[in-house]
Amino acid sequence: MAGAEVVVEGRSSRVARTGSQRFRTVRFVAAGREYQAIEQNPDKPSRWGQLARQGKRVVQFRDLLTNKYVAVSVDQEVHEYGSRV
Q1: Does 26 fall in a domain?
Q2: Cβ(24)–Cβ(15) below 8 Å
Q3: Which residue, 2, 5, 23, 49, could crosslink 39 as a Cys pair with Cβ 3.0–4.6 Å?
């Protein structure tokens, strides 16, 4: 999400900025579902916020149909929530 757009499954999506905090966000479709990728707020006290404060690139993924966070990416390594792998 460092550039102006990302390509997922051959489709290009524009990277936007959120309101006042100005975090990067992008909506995209993968496997027939619509998701939103959101840059992690480093000020949050969570372990993901702590990693962001350490300089890691942390991105949360939200399923827009269920409005639940389904995965996180830390320095381009994706970890699905609910998955033990």
Answers
A1: yes
A2: yes
A3: 23
Residue 63 lies in a domain: yes
Tokens for 76, please give them.
């381009």
Concatenate the DSSP letters of all residues of 59-71 into one string: EEEEETTTTEEEE
Count CA within 13 A, CB hemisphere, residue 81: 10
pLDDT digits (tens, 9 = 90+) for 9-35: 788 888 888 777 788 999 999 888 999
Give the chain's domain count: 1
Q: Which domain holds residue 51?
A: 5-80
85 belongs to a structural domain: no
Instruction: Report d(CA 67, CA 72) in Å as an integer.
Output: 15
